[in-house]
Design brief:
Elements (H helix, E strand, L loop, with lengths): L2 H15 L1 E3 H8 L3 H13 L4 E3 L2 E3 L10 H5 L3 H12 L7 E4 L3 H10 L5 E5 L2 H7 L5 E5 L3 E3 L4 E3 L1 H5 L6 E6 L3 E3 L3 E4 L2 H12 L1 E7 L11 E4 L6 E5 L4 H9 L3 E5 L7
Helix pairs in contact: 1-3, 2-3, 5-6, 6-7
């Protein structure tokens, strides 16, 4: 059985049963536990399951993260306005980290004309947006590719950040509340995001109004770790007030079409 077919069968079995042991998985696909263990590591790095001692468990029903294509269709004008304001925070000489996401991708597109800026990113799309800019030095983290979000994740991606200390991190997520901070439904993504947070002196969250007040499964940046939130005027004012009370600098922008 080819590796791709074997992993698909493993995933189907885990999704059907909820939790499956290593021996059962090995018997089901006709291979060794060593090979299954390697397959589980790969599937976990792609955010498709969660390993546990002796096997693996399926992701919870509400765990599924929207794909990049799905995200691009949500609040596009607001994301552009947020990205434009965030770009104003970057000045020559800065060393920054940019996480994966549609809003951070929009930020990268606006930074393409900047000079003397060093960018570390785990996003294929962010790197591509900056590839033609002679004034921006781009370093990628490496790691395993999550095709749905064009993001590099996993232990090797996280360890590549261990020796870095950037001035500022620009990061997005699936939800942001004053109680839990920035959250995502995917444990693998959350682990990578936490590594980026640890590598930066300041954390700037780019979150349109659809994210404000939403709370997903895994915390990536608690409120006390967030320096600034850049959002739009449609965001829940009560939640923004609570973020400010928690010591977060909240910047509110308007899409350009609202001024027409």
């Amino acid at each position: 059985m080819f590796p791709a077919a074997r992993r698909r069968k493993i995933l189907e079995l885990i999704e059907r049963e909820g939790a499956v042991g290593m021996r059962q998985l090995a018997d089901a696909v006709g291979t060794s536990e060593v090979t299954v263990r390697r397959d589980l590591r790969q599937l976990e790095s792609e955010g498709l399951l969660v390993r546990h001692r002796g096997g693996a468990v399926a992701l919870p029903p509400d765990h599924n993260e929207p794909t990049y294509a799905e995200k691009t269709r949500v609040a596009a004008d607001h994301k552009e306005a947020i990205a434009a304001r965030a770009a104003e925070l970057v000045v020559p000489g800065d060393a920054i980290i940019i996480g994966a996401g549609t809003t951070t991708h929009a930020l990268a597109q606006r930074l393409a004309g900047h000079n003397d800026v060093a960018v570390v990113t785990n996003s294929i799309l962010v790197a591509d947006a900056l590839a033609g800019s002679s004034g921006v030095e781009v370093t990628m983290t490496g790691g395993s590719l999550r095709g749905s979000t064009y993001a590099l994740v996993g232990p090797s991606a996280e360890s590549s950040l261990g020796h870095l200390h950037a001035k500022r991190l620009f990061i997005s997520g699936n939800g942001l509340t004053a109680a839990r901070g920035l959250t995502t439904p995917n444990p693998v993504v959350a682990s990578m995001d936490r590594a980026m947070v640890a590598a930066a002196r300041q954390v700037v969250v780019l979150a349109d109004h659809t994210k404000i007040g939403q709370d997903t499964m895994v915390s990536t940046a608690p409120p006390h770790a967030i320096t600034t939130v850049v959002t739009d005027a449609e965001a829940d004012p009560g939640e923004l007030a609570a973020l400010r009370a928690a010591g977060v600098d909240v910047v509110v922008v308007q899409p350009s079409w609202t001024h027409a």
